[in-house]
Each structure stands twice: as C-alpha cells, then as structure tokens.
Task: inverse folding
C-alpha cells in the first residue's frame, strides 16, 4: 500500500507527519510525506522556529511525484492540519490527480479545526474550507467532538446526538466517520469514547481516561484508522485496531511522564497492541 500524506511536520517531537508517517510505515505501508509546515517543534510549547509552505509548493512536490509515473500506484491520500486555504486547494488537487489514475484510491481527511476548551485554533477561512470543500471530497473523516459539532451544526451532548451529527456528515460525502475524544452524558467520568459510523451503523470503543496532555495523538489515530480501514473496508475493524494501538501508545507515554508521545519507544503498539477493546455496536 502507498499513501500520500500531506500535513504539518516537526523536527523535534511527534505531531502531523512526524506522528502519522512512522506508524503507517510500521504497519508495512509505503508513505510519501509532503509537509505543509516545517517547524522545530509543535506550537504547544509556545515558541517555535520554521515556516509555513504555500499551495504552489505542495503542488510542485505532487508534480514531481507524478513525473516519476507512480501516482497510479497511490492507494490513498491522508491530510491533516492545513496552514492556509490555498494549501487545502492543493491537497484537493492532489486527491483529484490520484483518483483520476486510480479510481479505488481513498481520501482520508482529518478536519483539524479546534478542540473542546480551546475553540477554533486554525487560521480564518480554514474551518469553512474544511466544511464546504475538504470533507465533501473525503471518503473518511476523523473529527474530534468539537469538530463534529462544527461540521454538523449540532450541539452534541448524548450518543443520540453523536449519531445525528455523524449522519449529517455522512450526507456531506464521507462514507466512514471516526469521532475521537467523545464525552457525552453516557460516558463515565473515568473513560473516554471513540465512535465510528458507516452505512447507517455505529460502533463505540470505550477506553480508560488517561491523565496526560500531549499533542499528536489525533494525527496518529487518523493514520492508523485510515490504514486499517483501507485494508479491511470495515469501520468497526479499523476502530478496534486503531483505538488499541493509540491507547497503548498513550499509556506508555503516561507511564514515562513524557511531554511528547513515545512514537518510537512504543512502536510495538502499532503492530501488537498490549490492550484490546471491543468495538460495540450502539
């Protein structure tokens, strides 16, 4: 499997491509990473060095790959944080080029917009671009609860609300939806839920809540869910596999007291998760 992954990158730590690429490689996937930003570290530290690339820079790299004659062998495109709307346009152009050469290729969009407690943290214009252009073009989307509310226009407080919101997102285009970091009225206070929807059916994985705050976990689970979905064509299977790996990764990170997720040290979690969870149909 060959995946074109277009998202942010950091030299130190693990967010964006620095979080998504290695887990996919560890699962035996050939990844072609294109970076939308190149920073020294993630912005959660409060200071960083580096720069944001523009749309033409992304298009130039895609063109270079196309000149190798290999885009027809691309099985999917994964996108995450978009620094600007013109980068988003470049990503959708890449998706169109890949699909024109391989009608079976999938596009997974992690619609990075914001989070509960933080609100919207991307540049103006990005949330609207995600809702109106990127999500409708995607086969798979992986919003968190805050992003699901934005995309659907609904306030989500219960499992029933989640189902309604996911159904609205399905209606926008994507056949598979993974909702991360879900806390509804039915979620026990010491747990956290992940919900996947496909074909009018819904599945939930409930994991213990961990006491850590790190960046990059969402990038990792989007990549893992994408790979497992592409292989199994089952949202339930992809949910169970991806949630097990990411829980193990975060559990190891918590035990180590690390500020960065232990993408390398805990790499066995991607192929042989320590903990397993059942995807329960709800």
Result:
């Amino acid at each position: 499997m060959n995946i074109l992954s277009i998202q942010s990158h950091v030299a130190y730590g693990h967010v964006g491509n620095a979080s998504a690429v290695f887990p996919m490689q560890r699962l035996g996937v050939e990844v072609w990473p294109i970076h939308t930003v190149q920073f020294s570290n993630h912005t959660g530290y409060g200071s960083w060095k580096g720069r944001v690339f523009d749309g033409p820079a992304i298009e130039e790299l895609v063109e270079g790959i196309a000149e190798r004659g290999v885009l027809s062998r691309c099985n999917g495109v994964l996108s995450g944080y978009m620094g600007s709307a013109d980068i988003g346009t470049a990503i959708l152009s890449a998706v169109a080029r890949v699909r024109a050469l391989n009608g079976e290729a999938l596009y997974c969009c992690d619609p990075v917009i914001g989070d509960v407690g933080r609100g919207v943290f991307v540049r103006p214009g990005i949330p609207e671009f995600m809702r109106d252009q990127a999500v409708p073009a995607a086969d798979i989307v992986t919003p968190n609860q805050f992003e699901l509310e934005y995309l659907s226009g609904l306030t989500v407080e219960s499992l029933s609300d989640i189902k309604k919101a996911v159904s609205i997102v399905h209606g926008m285009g994507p056949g598979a939806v993974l909702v991360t970091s879900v806390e509804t009225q039915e979620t026990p206070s010491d747990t956290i839920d992940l919900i996947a929807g496909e074909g009018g059916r819904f599945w939930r994985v409930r994991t213990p809540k961990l006491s850590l705050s790190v960046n990059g976990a969402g990038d990792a689970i989007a990549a893992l869910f994408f790979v497992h979905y592409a292989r199994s064509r089952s949202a339930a299977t992809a949910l169970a596999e991806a949630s097990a790996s990411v829980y193990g990764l975060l559990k190891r990170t918590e035990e180590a007291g690390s500020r960065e997720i232990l993408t390398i040290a805990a790499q066995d979690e991607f192929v042989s998760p320590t903990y397993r969870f059942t995807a329960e149909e709800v």
Remarks:
- The chain has eight helices and twelve strands.
- The two ends are 31 Å apart (CA to CA).
- The longest strand covers residues 30-39.
- The helical segments are 17-26, 55-67, 85-101, 126-137, 145-152, 159-172, 217-232, 235-256.
